[in-house]
Amino acid sequence: MALDKKIKNSPNTVKIGIIGGGQLGKMIILEGKKLGIQFIVLDPDENCPAASIADEQILGGYYDSEKIEKLAACCHVLTYEVEHIHADILMALVEKGHSIQPAPTTLKMIQNKYRQKTFLLEKGIATTEFEKITTVVDIENYIRREGLPAILKSCYGGYDGKGNKVIRTVDEIEKAYQLLGGSTNELMIEKYITFTHEISVIAARGAYGEIRLFPIGENIHEENILRTTIVPARVEASVLQKAEKLALEVMEELEGTGVFCIEMFVDPEGNVLVNEIAPRVHNSGHYTMEGCNISQFQQHLMAILEYPLATPYLIKPSLMMNLLGEEKEGRAMIEGLTEVLQYDDTYVHFYGKEYTKPLRKMGHVTLLGHNPEALMDKAEKVKKVLKITGY
Amino acid sequence: MALDKKIKNSPNTVKIGIIGGGQLGKMIILEGKKLGIQFIVLDPDENCPAASIADEQILGGYYDSEKIEKLAACCHVLTYEVEHIHADILMALVEKGHSIQPAPTTLKMIQNKYRQKTFLLEKGIATTEFEKITTVVDIENYIRREGLPAILKSCYGGYDGKGNKVIRTVDEIEKAYQLLGGSTNELMIEKYITFTHEISVIAARGAYGEIRLFPIGENIHEENILRTTIVPARVEASVLQKAEKLALEVMEELEGTGVFCIEMFVDPEGNVLVNEIAPRVHNSGHYTMEGCNISQFQQHLMAILEYPLATPYLIKPSLMMNLLGEEKEGRAMIEGLTEVLQYDDTYVHFYGKEYTKPLRKMGHVTLLGHNPEALMDKAEKVKKVLKITGY
Questions:
Q1: How is chain A split into domains, by residue range?
Q2: CATH fold label, B5-100
Q3: Could you tell me which of A63, A27, A28 has the C-alpha nearest to residue A42?
Q4: Is the pLDDT of residue A159 over 80?
Q5: Binding positions for ATP (chains A, B) (predicted)?
Q6: What pLDDT is stored for residue B163 in this prediction?
Q7: Strands B15-19 and B38-43, how do they pair?
Q8: Which of B333, B342, B365 to mutate to test the interface with A (most CBs of A within 10 A)?
Q9: Of A286, A388, B146, B213, which has the maximum CB count within 10 A?
Q10: Which CATH architecture has domain A129-191?
Q11: Residue B51 has what DSSP assignment?
């Protein structure tokens, strides 16, 4: 349902609801406030990062249909910054005429990894091979046929590597099955592909169907958590072209407006395969805040508020590194902040989470520079100095 | 008094008090939230632009010493985004050990235009000629000696041209004197100089004495209200050098950390004269948000929180145009917003003020482009389409 023209001309009267009040929600709000937009956040934690700048917060969980209905009732457009939320209630709300972006049908589809992969397969989009798993015997059969290593995945609920288990030897099958709760959870198995690069494309669809891509970033994960995004990705131009083409193919098939992230693998032959889709702003797009003419957060707002999209371009090569909590838990503190702020083209973001714990995403740093190599050196320097630790 | 190191390493525990909750305060907060900083705003209007993102607001006027003391008591550093505030109470608070930046002594000095000019004169800084005025006869004597036109100014309280009156004929003397309340208000008179350009330098002093200048902007005023800032200023390189030198001379003499704006005139011979100093972030520095590697707001925070300053540079030539309310009063609406958002490198800011009235500063637009000429053309196009009007 199109937004009222009067509302669109008075952005300070627009109310956007966001399910999730983490750092992604916070950064959406920071952009929206430049236009005076009002935000209502649904999050169970009253100290969530977005709370300090949201106009209002509804305290509640992401599966609380009553609270989600309440949120929808008081905003012009509803969006989300998390994926594990009650998609059925969102679909019902769309039926009732609410604007929810990206479309809950897309959300519902990606929430189940097996359904997501099947969708890609059906649409003829290159992706890694996969198979549904019910019993340990299914895994054994798969491995006998396809070989090792393989990756066992929970179809629901995984993020940052949770819900995934790599099987490297036959001995590990039973343990992996138990770990992911195979007797009660829906599971799938994938070939563990050898890739040379992980890349991601942040893409947006506007209200009039236009699609815009951000420059493609290369992602480095450790312990399944994104550590670093480097832009432009250090792959050949032909790979970038394939990735863009693939991203456009995916975008043509997804429903709804807003920003999406399409994660891909590049194999040693230079083939590009879709790994996973997120119908939301994404950690690998944080670099756009300083590295591009428009941030992913602002582009998301342009899309869901039915304004025209910007055509993104890179101002300078960029590197984003996540600031994860070190070993020491407690109230969060950034060691080395003053030193790092002396470096040029260095932007520190600290999400405002009160407590740190190991590997918790507490903030990120964006570095701009002449080329990816120089940025990698600079990042090493920053990493040595800047530590999130408890006190 | 230096900030505690622990506090500086935990920016999410830092509390900054801001006197004034207008758009300047709002934009300071938007930058500070990237580091998770907390803000408490003192403003009499509960719907002021900063209110929607401040962590807390103290409702009160800028001369309410009790409320100012309350604000100081609950923050680590106190700053201000307006000039017409109770400077004496701020000076007393500094005596008691509070950190207030820039120094209230500087604020006190600039609040009285005669004192400000005398200060510049004493420090040997080039400025326009001026004289104190008490009676109509004083004005007559001045004009007999110096000629017309002259500009009569109230020493206190003027902004956006309020408190100024140009005298072009002898007949206007009495009227100007009455208009500015000469029998009760302190007045001064200045030679009305013919200038080819108005320019301004946004400068910052850090906690360790370092001074950093932003690229110099050229300002266009109409009806004494800033309409447009063009960066780089369209003056010769030698003029820019003189302006930088002059700005550094001024900065060496001012007290306190933070961002200052130094407004200057360029005369037909290419001489540069200081017109006015503002010890705060400034409308003519808004272009820095998109046009520079660091915004004036972030630089201000770096300074007052005793972090190192960045060295500002221009990403692309920039033009900032203010969005002032048109004739029609009422609830604010931006006609043409959707159209303008189609233009590339065009950034619309809307402060979130509910009501518009003629010439009220409701927002601004920053344009980036190849050169000032192209930007002027683009600005004309934007101006034709984008209107703030009431409904």
A1: 5-100, 129-191, 197-390
A2: Rossmann fold (3.40.50)
A3: A63
A4: no
A5: 113, 153, 190-193, 198, 221, 275-276
A6: 84
A7: parallel
A8: B333
A9: A286
A10: 2-Layer Sandwich (3.30)
A11: G
